[in-house]
């Protein structure tokens, strides 16, 4: 049977995840069957009933149609790549629209592209470019200072940069100019297009709504809590698709400042308990689940109004939001009680029996 198997380069878990999203995003808009095997931040992509030339044609056309969107999402709002690098980014993305990209994809059919392409700090090989901090936050000054690595730029091939940029723009959610934040979903396990494509579709068609919810409270909520808020605000259908596959899901979250030149924060969060809990509640009582999401939205509005009015008490509201998420992780009567008690003290009116029922379903 005709098929194509490609492997991510092996640069680092974060960058390989972006490249994975970049490689599969064009396939989500075609009737092409594929599976992705994730193992500790590296990925094997099996594309069925397709030739190398057909895949290259899909990538070429997709990038041609989306190059402006990719550049805008990375250099304007949010600023995850330095704005002065727009021309460089454009020239790199142009490479993905040309037949020469076939050489890169052909090399990815064997594991170890990063080694063969001489990727690394200070690499001066022809065709290499710096892996920007938004595409590789592990490689910034803080990390090489802490781990005593050489204080040189980490250089990779331009195609790796191009697919990582496409993955960050299309396969993740980002927002912010002064402080840019990005949330990248990653996994260990075998996942097919039936789970990955609905996620890609939602974060692109519903992007403005998701970003607005996160943006309005980002300055007063820890990055780890924002990561959970990102997941729980996905649609129940997308959550069920992710939950129904045998995979371990996590979210990489980054906070980048000073026009994408400085890493302010990074975290990795296990979101399996959230996906599991949301799927359970929505399947057992969809009305109660909707009221729970309404309560979370109301909490973000309360936090926002206090931020604008410079009113004290935001910390207690953030604690209430975090308590809801803790109930998903701990699944104990005490954790559910604490969440309801904090919600009762935060809201002007009691949160209601439906919210209590939704959280109590986690105990069943």
Can you describe what's shown?
The chain is globular. Helix 2 runs antiparallel to helix 3 (86-95) and helix 11 (236-243) packs across helix 12 (272-284). It is built from 16 helices and 10 strands. The chain has 364 residues and is of the alpha+beta class. The chain starts with a strand and ends with a helix.
Itemize the secondary structure elements and their pairings.
Blueprint: E1 3-7, H1 13-24, E2 34-39, E3 42-48, H2 52-75, H3 86-95, H4 101-107, H5 113-116, E4 120-121, E5 128-130, H6 141-146, E6 154-157, H7 158-170, E7 172-175, E8 179-192, H8 193-205, H9 207-215, H10 223-232, H11 236-243, E9 247-257, E10 262-270, H12 272-284, H13 286-309, H14 314-330, H15 333-346, H16 353-360
Antiparallel strand pairs: 1-3, 2-3, 2-8, 4-6, 5-6, 7-8, 8-9, 9-10
Helix pairs in contact: 1-7, 2-3, 2-4, 2-7, 3-7, 8-11, 11-12, 12-13, 13-14, 13-16, 14-15
What's this, in brief?
This protein is of the alpha+beta class.
Task: Give a count of the beta strands, DSSP E runs of length 2 or more.
Answer: 10
Largest sheet: 7 strands, antiparallel
Low-confidence stretches: none
What number is the mean pLDDT? Answer: 89
Features:
alpha+beta, 16 helices, seven-stranded antiparallel beta sheet
């Amino acid at each position: 049977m005709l098929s194509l198997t490609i492997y991510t380069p092996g640069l680092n878990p974060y960058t390989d995840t972006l490249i994975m999203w970049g490689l599969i995003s064009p396939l989500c808009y075609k009737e092409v069957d594929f599976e992705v095997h994730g193992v500790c931040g590296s990925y094997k992509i099996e594309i069925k009933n397709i030739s190398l030339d057909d895949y290259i044609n899909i990538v070429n056309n997709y990038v041609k149609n989306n190059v402006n969107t990719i550049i805008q999402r990375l250099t304007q709002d949010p600023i995850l790549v330095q704005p002065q690098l727009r021309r460089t980014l454009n020239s790199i993305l142009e490479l993905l629209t040309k037949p020469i990209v076939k050489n890169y994809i052909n090399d990815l059919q064997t594991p170890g592209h990063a080694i063969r392409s001489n990727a690394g700090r200070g690499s001066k090989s022809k065709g290499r470019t710096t892996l920007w901090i938004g595409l590789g936050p592990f490689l910034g000054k803080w990390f090489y200072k802490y781990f005593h690595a050489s204080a040189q730029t980490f250089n990779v091939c331009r195609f790796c940069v191009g697919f990582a940029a496409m993955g960050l723009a299309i396969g993740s959610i980002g927002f912010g100019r002064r402080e840019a934040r990005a949330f990248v979903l990653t996994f260990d396990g075998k996942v097919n297009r039936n789970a990955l494509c609905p996620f890609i579709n939602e974060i692109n068609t519903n992007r403005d709504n998701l970003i607005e919810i996160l943006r309005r409270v980002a300055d007063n909520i820890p990055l780890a809590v924002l990561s959970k808020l990102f997941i729980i605000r996905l649609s129940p259908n997308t959550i069920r698709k992710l939950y129904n596959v045998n995979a371990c899901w996590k979210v990489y979250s980054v906070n980048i400042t000073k026009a994408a030149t400085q890493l302010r924060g990074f975290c990795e969060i296990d979101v399996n308990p959230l996906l599991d809990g949301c799927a359970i509640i929505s399947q057992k009582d969809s009305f109660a689940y909707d009221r729970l999401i309404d309560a979370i939205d109301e909490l973000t509005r309360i936090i926002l109004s206090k931020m604008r009015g410079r009113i004290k008490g935001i910390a207690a509201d953030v604690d209430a939001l975090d308590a809801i998420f803790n109930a998903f992780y701990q699944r104990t009567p005490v954790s559910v009680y604490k969440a309801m008690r904090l919600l009762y003290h935060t809201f002007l009116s009691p949160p209601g029996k439906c919210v209590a029922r939704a959280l109590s379903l986690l105990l069943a």
